[in-house]
């Protein structure tokens, strides 16, 4: 056990040294350096919000981020470590619908190769989703906030073009650095109501035809 | 260098300007007169003939490196990143003989417009400047170190691939790319789509034989001219009150469409609309004229649903982002923290990789 631990420590030192060599050797001009790019894309559906967040630590801050992820410093990112870091990112996010907090859950996390991460070119892709409460047709406000790694973050936040014809994005309001995004959208009435209208219309038509039939029969009897 | 000054550079000047590893491609440019726009089907036939001539010049191993199945991962395998960080597949320019390079040059000059080919070669040459640090106009400005840490820059590190078999009727794709460049041209008979493509530049300005070269200079200058041609009310609509630090729909964002922002083209005057189309042409006109013209006609027809958005200062020479978005168009121009490092993207969300053609 002790030998294993020593071996792991040794590997850790090796991994960190390798990362530092890479960072020193890669031409800085070609890469994002001291910013932690966090790009959010938000899809609004009538009943659901999907949030995709791509986070890419720049080459200068990658060692810090890798150290935050690789908590046992063994030079590997294990599943529990990955999930724990995704949870930290998730904890820095807030969603609100019409001023009320909107709970959301982690759907998927995709990890880059550790070497890409240390080069400042690795992107961690996180997918989150929230189920919306029942909303009346009309105008609604979805607010997104990102507080992950605020000191060195470069944010992007965008509403996607809605896939549902019931949702129309009206405006997007952001703060100056895109840490917050408020999407104002309108939700149209559920088109699922149309079959009910058809049923009611058909029923009314049948009643009318039946009524006309009765009137005609009565008239014929009277003539006879 | 201004647009007008740029246009004054002679054909000979460009041949001399872009020397080095890609000397033969540049010779191809020098020998090429500006042809009238061919019919699209004729253009496809010429491109296919040039592609087949290249195939003939290769041995079996070379042909194997060049060709990929149409329905496979190669189609979306492109990036702005340099070799070493992103490993491209295909025919590496540094591995070719002079005759084979000449065949590549002929193919590219056939597939691209005169301005498009020049832009592509200036981007490639810029990467060579990055590699050697021989920026010319600013001592020590380049800073690129070839090969460091497994990352490779320079003219040799560009790759060509055929996705599908060159054909005058069936869909196939010509890919040419490397650091800061991805050209994805899908051809299907008389139709073509050059989206998604990523022309970028670092350095964004360098000097060769006393001439300043700005691969994306026209894009920058025309956009600043348009934003400064807007009145206060128009600017209030066009200018986004927040920083955009990178491409929103860059590599890896295929199939995604964001909600448009900025000023709608219907709120622009006729002259401003013409200026907007002129900016769009910088991307749509990279492909040979036979395909650029129908594409421009489509984008002109969609202009009423097209938006122009700006983020950053409006003083020429500033670091500023802009986006042009319409039903069949996304263009983004995103400085990477400085005016000397520019990423751009050109997409058609309805027809990236010629999806309309291959769906038929």
Layout of secondary structure:
The complex is a heterodimer of chains A (224) and B (360).
Chain A: H1 2-25, E1 36-44, E2 48-57, H2 62-69, H3 79-91, E3 93-97, E4 100-101, E5 105-110, H4 114-118, E6 124-131, E7 138-146, E8 153-159, E9 167-174, E10 180-187, H5 193-223
Chain B: H1 3-7, H2 11-17, H3 23-31, H4 40-57, H5 60-66, E1 67-68, E2 91-92, H6 98-111, H7 114-132, E3 159-163, E4 172-178, E5 181-188, E6 191-193, E7 198-199, E8 206-208, E9 211-213, H8 217-229, H9 232-238, E10 263-264, H10 270-284, H11 289-301, E11 307-311, E12 321-326, E13 329-335, E14 342-347, H12 355-358
Parallel strand pairs in B: 1-3
Antiparallel strand pairs in B: 2-3, 3-4, 4-5, 5-6, 5-7, 8-9, 10-11, 11-12, 12-13, 13-14
Helix pairs in contact in B: 2-3, 3-6, 4-6, 8-10, 10-11
Keywords for this entry:
heterodimer; A: 224 residues; alpha+beta; 5-stranded mixed beta sheet; 5-stranded antiparallel beta sheet; 10 strands; 36% helix; 32% strand; elongated; disordered N terminus; B: 360 residues; 7-stranded mixed beta sheet; 14 strands
The SSE string of chain A, one letter per element, is HEEHHEEEHEEEEEH
Shape, per Cα inertia axes of chain B: globular
Taking the alpha carbons of the first and last residues of chain A, their distance comes to 109 Å
Fraction of residues in β-strands of chain A: 25-35%
């Amino acid at each position: 056990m002790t030998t294993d631990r020593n071996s792991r420590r040794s590997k850790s030192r090796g991994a960190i040294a390798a990362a530092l060599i890479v960072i020193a050797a890669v031409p800085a001009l070609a890469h994002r350096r001291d910013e932690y790019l966090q790009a959010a894309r938000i899809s609004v559906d009538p009943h659901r919000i999907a949030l995709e967040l791509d986070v890419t630590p720049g080459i200068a801050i990658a060692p810090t981020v890798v150290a935050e992820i690789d908590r046992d410093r063994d030079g590997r990112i294990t599943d529990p470590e990955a999930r724990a870091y995704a949870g930290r990112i998730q904890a820095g996010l807030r969603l609100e619908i019409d001023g009320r907090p909107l709970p959301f859950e982690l759907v998927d996390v995709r990890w880059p190769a550790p070497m890409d991460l240390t080069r400042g070119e690795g992107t961690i892709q996180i997918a989150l989703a929230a189920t919306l409460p029942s909303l009346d047709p009309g105008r609604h406000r979805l607010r997104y906030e990102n507080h992950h790694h605020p000191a060195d973050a470069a944010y992007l936040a965008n509403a996607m073009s809605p896939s549902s014809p019931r949702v129309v994005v009206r405006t997007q309001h952001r703060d100056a650095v895109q840490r917050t995004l408020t999407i104002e959208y309108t939700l149209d009435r559920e088109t699922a109501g149309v079959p009910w209208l058809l049923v009611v219309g058909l029923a009314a038509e049948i009643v009318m035809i039946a009524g006309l039939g009765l009137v005609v029969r009565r008239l014929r009897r009277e003539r006879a | 260098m201004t647009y007008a000054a740029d246009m004054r550079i002679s054909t000979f000047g460009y041949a001399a300007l872009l020397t080095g590893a890609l000397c033969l491609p540049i010779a191809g440019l020098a020998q090429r007169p500006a042809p009238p726009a061919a019919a699209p089907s004729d253009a496809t036939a010429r491109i296919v003939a040039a592609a087949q001539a290249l195939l003939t010049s290769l041995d079996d191993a070379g042909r194997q490196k060049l060709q990929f199945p149409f329905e496979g991962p190669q189609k979306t395998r492109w990036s702005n990143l340099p070799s070493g960080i992103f490993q491209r597949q295909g025919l590496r320019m540094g591995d070719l003989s002079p005759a084979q390079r000449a065949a590549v040059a002929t193919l590219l000059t056939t597939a691209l417009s005169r301005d498009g080919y020049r832009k592509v070669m200036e981007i490639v040459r810029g990467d060579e400047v990055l590699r050697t640090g021989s920026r010319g106009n600013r001592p020590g400005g380049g800073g690129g170190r070839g090969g460091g840490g497994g990352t490779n820059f320079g003219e040799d590190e560009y790759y060509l691939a055929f996705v599908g078999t060159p054909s005058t009727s069936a869909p196939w794709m010509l890919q040419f790319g490397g650091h800061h460049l991805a050209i994805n041209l899908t051809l299907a008979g008389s139709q073509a789509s050059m989206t998604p493509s990523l022309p970028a530049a670092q350095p964004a300005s360098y000097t060769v034989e006393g001439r300043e070269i700005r691969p994306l200079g026209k894009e920058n200058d025309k956009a600043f001219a348009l934003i400064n041609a807007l009145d206060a009310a128009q600017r209030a609509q066009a200018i986004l009150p927040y920083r955009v630090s990178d491409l929103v729909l860059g590599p890896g964002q295929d199939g995604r469409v964001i909600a448009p922002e900025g000023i709608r083209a219907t709120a622009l005057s006729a002259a401003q609309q013409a200026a907007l189309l002129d900016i769009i042409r910088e991307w749509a006109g990279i492909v040979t004229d036979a395909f650029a013209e129908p594409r421009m006609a489509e984008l002109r027809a969609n202009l009423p649903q097209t938006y122009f958005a700006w983020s950053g200062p409006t003083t020429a020479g500033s670091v500023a982002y802009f986006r042009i978005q319409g039903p069949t168009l996304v263009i983004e121009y995103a400085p990477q923290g400085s005016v000397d490092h520019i990423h751009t993207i050109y997409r058609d969300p309805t027809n990236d990789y010629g999806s309309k053609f291959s769906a038929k």
